[in-house]
Amino acid sequence: MNYKEAAKELDKMRRSNEVLFRMAISHLMDVGIRHLTDENVEYTCQEIMKEDDSHSFMTNEFSCAIVRAAAKIAKINHTYVLAYIGENLKYDVV
């Protein structure tokens, strides 16, 4: 699925029930946030460090840094994160 197809599907869901759509996005973020506990982050990093990164474009250390950064972002209210993304991050998908 490309961005155009994804946007069409998301628009369809949003038009069907805006409140449900917004609550579903919040739930999706909340579920992800709740799984980024300190214990899960450390376990994930331990597992990452066992992998062979010699042929990867990212080192294991960088992969762990991504997980740790995600956990740090998860501590911020997800509504603020969504607003920040909408206002400040641009993706070249069109």
Number of beta-strand segments: 0
**Low-pLDDT residue intervals, each spanning 5 or more residues:** none
Quaternary class: single chain
Mean pLDDT: 93
- Main beta sheet strand tally, sense and closure: none
Q: What report would you give on this structure?
A:
With 94 residues, the protein is an all-alpha fold. Helices cover 73% and strands 0% of the residues. The chain has five helices and no strands. Helix 1 (3-16) crosses helix 2 and helix 3 (38-49) runs antiparallel to helix 4. The two termini are 13 Å apart.
Please supply descriptive tags for the structure shown above.
94 residues
Layout: helices, strands, pairs:
Elements: H1 3-16, H2 18-34, H3 38-49, H4 60-74, H5 78-88
What is the gist of this entry?
This protein is mainly α. 73% of the residues lie in helices and 0% in strands. The longest helix is centred in the N-terminal third of the chain and has 17 residues.
